[in-house]
Amino acid sequence: MKTIVSGIQPSGRLTLGNYLGAIKNFVNIQENMEYDAFFVFIADLHAITVPKEPLLLRQSVRKLAALYLACGLNPEKVTLFIQSEVHEHAELGYLLQTISYIGELERMTQYKDKKIKQVDGVSSALLTYPVLMAGDILLYNASYVPVGQDQKQHLELTKILADRFNYRFGETFITPEPLITKIGAKIMSLQDPTKKMSKSDPLEKASIYLDDNEAAIRKKIASAITDSDGKIKFDPINKPGISNLLSIMSCCANKPIEELEKAYDGKGYGVFKQAVADSIVSLLVPIQEKYEAILNNKELLDKILDDGAIKASYFAKKNLNKVKKRMGLLRK
Ligand code: AQP
Questions:
Q1: CATH match of 3-180+298-327 with 3.40.50.620
Q2: How far apart are CA 225 and CA 99, in angstroms?
Q3: For 58-78, what is each residue's pLDDT tens digit?
């Protein structure tokens, strides 16, 4: 059985990075890959590893569900659900903590990055986040996990935990592989192109949000940090800003980077930036129109999420029981 699993945290307004690194890939897989089951969830349990205002979180969950659909996920082909509505995620996350070592969790780059930003203390859940993520994947015995580049390290840990569990308790889990897009796997901040674009970045103009209007998109691209040599060339080490804009345009317009380099050779950054903005606007405006309609259709959204939770729970329960039996936990 070939199963695919992925999720996104409802931890704020989604960025173009989340779309190009993750959602676009989900839609592509949905349309072009053969699979038996594809689970896409809203990772609300991950979102609360850093403090969240409850009302805002509830809104963000619905918004993310609407956005998934607006971007093209088809509930007939993909099981869409909210992570906390399938309680087996938290349960398997705990069971896997018993075979995870604190040292290996402390080495995770995302933990180190997020830890320093916490003002009211670091929750233990932030440390164990990758173990919950391993649980999300192993719960469905996923073969593939479409993610952006930044999640690769967590995927490596998932593989280690799957192998460790299999070694200790007998063959139980498939070792999952990441599915990472070639271009767009790491979209960088517009204001610091050495840092990834992130929904929790407090600097508004560093990110294009999927709900940004045309004027905001044009303004942010116009003020994106570049360099002074005037050449439109893909060179992430020496020209991170221009390379990031080339990656963005390549993904948004579905054109190879080399073709863009040729087309804008000698045209200057002003003209190029305008074209980058055009490509983003053309991509996002239709998504935004669909998004509003879906978000306002409360009944439809609830039905899709209810059905998704029922279906995911069915698979999750079966696999979790198997895991518990292996560990000597189930009486019957
Ligand atoms: N800049 C990015 N470029 C490409 N892919 C990206 N992803 C995130 N940022 C980029 C991918 O989006 C998916 C969802 O990520 P997540 O919400 O689970 O958490 P994250 O990776 O931590 O994303 P953010 O936007 O940086 O969220 P915050 O700020 O809340 O931590 C993943 O597949 C990720 O790789």
A1: yes
A2: 44
A3: 999 999 999 999 999 999 999
Q: In the chain, pLDDT over 90 holds for what percent of residues?
A: 95
In eight-state DSSP terms, residue 206 is: G
Q: Which tokens hold the place of 274?
A: 């305008």
Q: Report how far ligand 1's centroid is from the alpha carbon of 200 (Å).
A: 9
For residue 1, is pLDDT > 90? no
Rounded CA separation 158/33 (Å):
23
Choose which CATH entry (3.30.360.10, 3.30.230.70, 1.10.240.10, 3.55.50.30) describes domain 204-292.
1.10.240.10
To the query of whether residue 318 is one of the catalytic residues in this protein, the response is no
pLDDT band at 104 (very low <50, low <70, confident <90, very high): very high
Q: Which atom of ligand 1 approaches the CA of 151 most closely?
A: 35
Q: Mean pLDDT in the chain?
A: 96
Residues 6+ apart with CB under 8 A from 191: 203, 205, 206, 224, 225
Residue 1 has a CB neighbour count (10 Å cut-off) of 11
Interval 320-330 mean pLDDT = 97
Does position 267 have pLDDT exceeding 90, yes or no? Answer: yes
Query: Does the active-site annotation cover 199?
Result: yes
Instruction: Return the domain boundaries, the chain.
Output: 3-180+298-327, 204-292
Nearest CA to ligand 1 atom 23: 198
- The number of CA neighbours under 13 Å toward the Cβ of 266 is 1
Give the DSSP letter string of 235-267. BTTTBHHHHHHHHHHHHHHT--HHHHHHHTTTS
Q: What percent of the chain has pLDDT over 70?
A: 100
Nearest residue (CA) to ligand 1, atom 2? 17
Give the phi and the psi of residue 193 in degrees, each rounded to 5.
Answer: -70, 10
Cβ neighbourhood burial of 244 (10 Å; 0-12, 13-18, 19+): buried
